[in-house]
Amino acid sequence: MMFCEKCGSILIPKKNRKGKTVLSCRSCGYTSKKRESLILKEKVYLSEKEGITVVDKRVDILPKTQEICPKCNYKEAFFWTVQTRAADEAETRFFKCVKCNHTWRSYS
């Protein structure tokens, strides 16, 4: 960050008539003659139409275990744990059948 030698305001990057980027003061119009490297940072804001694209393909990266599905009796399921009760109590285990996608929980 550089400051104006005349009024002390912050110098901001601005293109001059020749197309070069120079540091200029908004308050008094002073232009710095110093040749220092400029690092320009710019924030880009996306409009709602340009939002993030959601991919429809579902990717299951959960670990699998040998658990019998209560709906289709398939013997393999994805699992994950969540602390749904007090910290001194056991976690709740959730299962999702690999075959039919049925989800159930176990409190043990």
Can you offer a commentary on this structure?
Helix content is 0%, strand content 26%. With 108 residues, the protein is mainly β. The protein has 2 domains: 36 residues; 43 residues, N-terminal domain of TfIIb (Single Sheet), CATH 2.20.25. The protein has a 4-stranded antiparallel β-sheet with strand order 3-4-5-6, with no helix packed on it. The radius of gyration is 30 Å and the shape is elongated. The two termini are 60 Å apart.
User: What is the CATH-assigned architecture of the largest domain?
Assistant: Single Sheet
Overall pLDDT level: 81
> How do the helices and strands follow one another from N- to C-terminus?
EEEEEE
Overall shape: elongated
Short description:
The protein contains no helices and six strands.
What topology emerges from the helices and strands here?
Blueprint: E1 11-15, E2 21-25, E3 64-65, E4 77-82, E5 92-97, E6 103-106
Antiparallel strand pairs: 1-2, 3-4, 4-5, 5-6
Structural key phrases:
108 residues, mainly beta, N-terminal domain of TfIIb, 2 domains, four-stranded antiparallel beta sheet, two-stranded antiparallel ribbon, elongated
